[in-house]
Design brief:
Distance between the termini: 32 Å
CATH class of the largest domain: Alpha Beta
Oligomer: single chain
Structural class: alpha/beta
Strand content: 15-25%
CATH superfamily of the largest domain: Thiamin diphosphate (ThDP)-binding fold, Pyr/PP domains
Order of helices and strands: EHEHEHEHHEHEHEEEEHEEHEHEHH
Shape: globular
Strand order of the largest sheet: 3-2-4-5-7-6-12
Length: 310
C-alpha cells in the first residue's frame, strides 16, 4: 500500500508533539515549504525560526537554543546542510555535545533534474566520520513517525535523512523501532539484502520478484547507520549465499562500505556487492530515472541477486 511522503509524516508528527511541548523549536533555512512545515508555522508561529539561506547560521542557532534547554530540530536540504555547514555540525553540535536533531530533507537524488550541485550523496559518509552524532534514515511512514518520537527526548546529537517520494507501508504490527537496531522485513536463506531509506522500498519489491523464482531473501531495513546494528547483520549470515547492499548514496563511505568492513574484520567470506552511486558526476533526470540508471530498479536488483547466488 502506498502511503504518503515521509516528510509529510515528519512534519505532522513534530507538530503533534510540539503542541504538547513548548520547548520544541524548529529552525529552517528557507525550507519551511519544502520541509512540509507550513502548517507548523501557522499553528505554532512562536516555535519556528526562519533564518533564510544561511545554513551555517542555522546550525549555530540550533546549538544555542539547545544550550538553554530547547528541543531543537534544524531543517534544511541535506545537500547544503551537510556540506556548507559541516564545520558547524562538527564543532557547534557534535564536539559541544548539544542534543540537536538536524533534519536533512530532499536527500539523495530527490532534487533529480537539478543535478549534482543539489544531490546529497555524500552526507552519510561525512557524518559517519564525525564523532558524537548518530544517523537515522527512515524507510517508510512507520519508521519516520517512530524516529521523530524518539528524537524529541534523545540525549545525543542526531541527523535524520529524508527524501521526497510517497513510500510503501513495509511494516507489520509486530515490528518495533529502536534507534540503533535494524528491522528484519523478510527472512530467507538465499541472500541477505541490507538497505536504508527510500531504497528499502525498491529492495522489498525486488524480494517479491525473487520469491516468484523460489529465491528467498532476508531483507534488513537498516534505518540507523550510526550506531550500527552489527548483530542483525551477522545473525542473518549463517545460511546466506551472499550479501547485497542498496543505498541512495555514494558507494564511498556509506552503508555498503560499513557492511563490508564488518564482514572483512570478522573474516566472513561471502559474495558481496554494493549498489549505490559510483564516483562520477551523475546523469540528470527524475529521481526514479537516476535510481533506475544506477541499477536500483526492483528488476535490476533482482537480476543482480540471481547472479550472486549462482
Amino acid at each position: 500500500m502506498i502511503e504518503r511522503a515521509n516528510l509529510e509524516i515528519f512534519a505532522e508528527t513534530l507538530l503533534e508533539l510540539a503542541k504538547k511541548d513548548k520547548n520544541i523549536i524548529v529552525v529552517t533555512s528557507d525550507s519551511r515549504g519544502s520541509g512540509k512545515l507550513t502548517n507548523f508555522g501557522k499553528e505554532l508561529p512562536e516555535q519556528i525560526i526562519e533564518v533564510g539561506i544561511a545554513e551555517q547560521n542555522l546550525v549555530g542557532i540550533c546549538a544555542g537554543l539547545s544550550a538553554v534547554g530547547k528541543k531543537v530540530f534544524g531543517v534544511s536540504p541535506s545537500s547544503f546542510l551537510t556540506a556548507r555547514s559541516l564545520e558547524q555540525i562538527k564543532n557547534d553540535i557534535a564536539y559541544s555535545n548539544h542534543p540537536v536533531t538536524l533534519v536533512g530533507i530532499s536527500a539523495g537524488v530527490s532534487y533529480g533534474q537539478l543535478g549534482s550541485t543539489h544531490h546529497s550523496i555524500h552526507d552519510i559518509a561525512v557524518l559517519r566520520a564525525i564523532n558524537n552524532i548518530d544517523i537515522i534514515i527512515p524507510a517508510d511512514n512507520f519508521e519516520t513517525r517512530e524516529a521523530i518520537k524518539s528524537a524529541v527526548n534523545y540525549k545525543r546529537p542526531l541527523f535524520i535523512r529524508f527524501g521526497k517520494k510517497p513510500m510503501m507501508n513495509l511494516h507489520t504490527s509486530n515490528h518495533n523501532f529502536k534507534i540503533g537496531h535494524g528491522i528484519k522485513l523478510k527472512s530467507g536463506n538465499d541472500l541477505v539484502i541490507v538497505s536504508t531509506g527510500e531504497t528499502v522500498n525498491r529492495a522489498f519489491k525486488a524480494c517479491e520478484i525473487l520469491e516468484k523464482l523460489n529465491i528467498n531473501c532476508t531483507l534488513i531495513s537498516m534505518h540507523t547507520i550510526k550506531p550500527f546494528d552489527e548483530d542483525i547483520l551477522l545473525n542473518s549470515l549463517p545460511k546466506a549465499k551472499g550479501v547485497l547492499t542498496i543505498e541512495e548514496h555514494s558507494v564511498s563511505g556509506g552503508l555498503g562500505e560499513k557492511c563490508a568492513s564488518i564482514l572483512s574484520q570478522k573474516n566472513i567470506h561471502l559474495p558481496f556487492k554494493i549498489i549505490g552511486f559510483p564516483d562520477e558526476y551523475m546523469v540528470n533526470g527524475s529521481q526514479n530515472d537516476v535510481l533506475d540508471y544506477y541499477n536500483m530498479s526492483p528488476e535490476k536488483i533482482s537480476e543482480i541477486a540471481q547472479k550472486m547466488i549462482k
